[in-house]
Design a protein that fits this description.
This protein is 85% helix and 0% strand. The chain has eight helices and no strands. By secondary structure, it is mostly helical. The chain has one domain. The two termini are 18 Å apart.
């Protein structure tokens, strides 16, 4: 059932991947400027990414028992995005703590979803690997909060690129599954 619902909304997974990749491009092309507007960019990123996860979670409600985990991940992203936009004078250390928390929680939810999907599809490792990348970056940010502006942007850029490409791969796989399920139903 989870596979059917995820495949039906494959385009939301792809959208999350595209948003992550666009954020990575900004982080790599002008890291100094990107850091200066990081709170705004990050706030928008978290808000949009969270909103797409909320929509996906709500769409899965009633069709899967664990729909609330995706909804909770999205709500956390939306909440952190609003905080970043409403209070732009957050310090870099505070920003790192917020990011680290978001990355850790998101990573745990992604790994949990991947474990559940392992019974339904092959190569669910894409989502699990995205979760591992999320957790690893969250730990790095907690252990070394004094990273420089450019280093922070490069780390975030690498994370966003890896996360984005992994979600694109998963989303395209879900599109193929959706197409196969739709063809077999006809």
């Amino acid at each position: 059932m989870l596979l059917q619902r995820l495949s039906q909304f494959w385009w939301l997974i792809v959208l999350r991947g595209i948003i992550s990749i666009l954020f990575a491009i900004v982080a790599f092309t002008n890291p100094t400027l990107a850091f200066e507007v990081l709170i705004l960019v990050l706030g928008v990123f978290l808000l949009v990414d969270g909103a797409t996860a909320v929509v996906l979670g709500l769409r899965m409600r009633g069709h899967d028992d664990d729909w609330w985990t995706i909804l909770l991940e999205g709500a956390l992203g939306v909440g952190l995005g609003v905080v970043a936009l409403v209070n732009p004078e957050l310090t870099a250390a505070g920003l790192l703590l917020i990011l680290a928390l978001w990355l850790l929680v998101t990573g745990v939810f992604e790994i949990g979803t991947a474990i559940k999907l392992r019974k339904e599809i092959d190569n669910e490792w894409l989502l699990g690997l995205a979760g591992v990348v999320s957790i690893a970056l969250g730990v790095v940010m907690i252990v070394n909060p004094t990273l420089g502006k450019i280093s922070i942007m490069w780390w975030l850029g690498f994370y966003a690129a890896a996360f984005g490409f992994l979600l694109l791969g998963l989303g395209l796989r879900m599109w193929r599954v959706h197409k196969r399920l739709k063809d077999s139903a006809s």
